[in-house]
Amino acid sequence: MPADGLQPTMNIKYRERHDGAHLSIIALRDKVKVGAIWLKIATAEELEGSYDAIADTDIIEEDGEVGFLNDLVVNKDCRRQGIGRELVARLRAFAAREGVLFLYVHAVNVEDVDPVPFYEECGFEKIGEDSGGDPYLKISSISS
What we know:
By secondary structure, the chain is an alpha+beta fold. The protein has one domain: 3-Layer(aba) Sandwich (Aminopeptidase). The protein is 19% helix and 36% strand. It has helices spanning 44-50, 83-97, 116-121, and strands spanning 12-19, 22-29, 32-43, 65-74, 103-106, 125-129, 135-139. A 7-stranded mixed beta sheet has the order 1-2-3-4-5-7-6. Residues 1-6 have low confidence and may be disordered.
């Protein structure tokens, strides 16, 4: 096991699907989905009216296209194996190729797991909170 305590992501295959302004990446182990991530690329104005997570906030201030990480899931039995980090890395690489300069995520606790430390390890910075206290995070150096 590596020094960081993560098990290697052996036998994981990643499948990307790009459809216009949407990207999905699926992680498969032995043909079984073990993780997935979804991205929407749009202008700030387009995102403002279409996503409940950011509909009532002025959290996005950039001009041009930005990315909003809609969802990241990893099966409970497959966590702490680097799958989530690899999904975020692949998403960042895709966003960089598409010319996206900023990525946003609305990090909501699920199953009493605080997602903020994970996203901070992936390079995101906390930039605010919604009215319920769930944080917004942003990453502005997509390609690193």
